[in-house]
C-alpha cells in the first residue's frame, strides 16, 4: 500500500480462490511445461507470487501453481513440489499438474488436490 494515497501498487488477483467457512486455497494456472530439473523449472517470480497470495489471503492454507500434465513428468509424486512458509508452517505453496484433454479426469484431479489441501 502506498502510505500517502492508501492505494495498492500491484494488482494481485489469483486465477481461482476456493473457500469454505474457515479455509481458502488460492490457485494460479500456468501454461508453461514443467521439467525434470531444479524446482522442476518453476520460475522464482511464480513462487514469489504464490507467497504473496498465501500471505495476503488470511484464511489461505495453500497457494497452488497449477500446470498442464506432461509425459516428461509422469513419474513425479503428488504434489510435484511442496513448501511451507517459514514463519507459518501451516501455510503451503504447492505445484500440481492436471491432465487437460480428458475433462472428466481433469475434474477428478482438481477435486483430489482441493481435498488434499482443504484437509
Folded structure, characterized:
There is one protein chain. By secondary structure, this protein is of the alpha/beta class. The chain has a five-stranded mixed β-sheet, with helices on both faces. Strand 4 and strand 5 (88-98) form a beta hairpin. It has helices at residues 44-56, 103-118, and strands spanning 16-19, 24-29, 60-68, 81-85, 88-98. The chain has one domain (16-118). It contains two helices and five strands. The model has no long low-confidence stretch (mean pLDDT 88).
Provide the fold topology.
Layout: E1 16-19, E2 24-29, H1 44-56, E3 60-68, E4 81-85, E5 88-98, H2 103-118
Parallel strand pairs: 2-3, 3-5
Antiparallel strand pairs: 1-2, 4-5
Short characterization:
The protein is α/β, with parallel strands linked by helices and 119 residues long.
Morphology: globular
Spatial gap, N to C terminus: 33 Å
Topology as a string of helices (H) and strands (E)? EEHEEEH
Helix content: 10-25%
Major beta sheet summary: 5 strands, mixed
Uncertain runs? none
Please tally the helical runs, counting DSSP H or I stretches of 4 or more residues: 2
Rg estimate, integer Å = 15 Å
Q: Kindly state the mean pLDDT as a whole number?
A: 88
Amino acid at each position: 500500500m502506498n502510505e500517502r494515497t492508501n492505494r495498492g501498487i500491484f494488482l494481485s488477483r489469483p486465477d481461482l480462490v476456493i473457500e469454505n467457512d474457515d479455509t481458502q486455497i488460492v490457485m494460479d494456472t500456468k501454461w508453461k511445461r514443467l521439467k525434470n530439473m531444479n524446482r522442476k523449472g518453476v520460475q522464482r517470480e511464480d513462487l514469489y507470487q504464490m507467497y504473496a497470495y498465501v500471505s495476503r489471503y488470511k484464511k489461505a492454507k495453500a497457494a497452488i501453481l497449477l500446470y498442464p500434465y506432461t509425459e516428461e513428468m509422469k513419474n513425479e509424486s503428488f504434489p510435484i513440489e511442496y513448501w511451507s512458509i517459514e514463519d507459518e508452517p501451516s501455510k503451503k505453496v504447492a505445484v500440481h499438474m492436471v491432465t487437460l484433454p480428458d475433462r472428466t479426469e481433469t475434474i477428478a484431479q482438481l477435486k483430489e488436490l482441493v481435498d488434499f489441501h482443504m484437509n
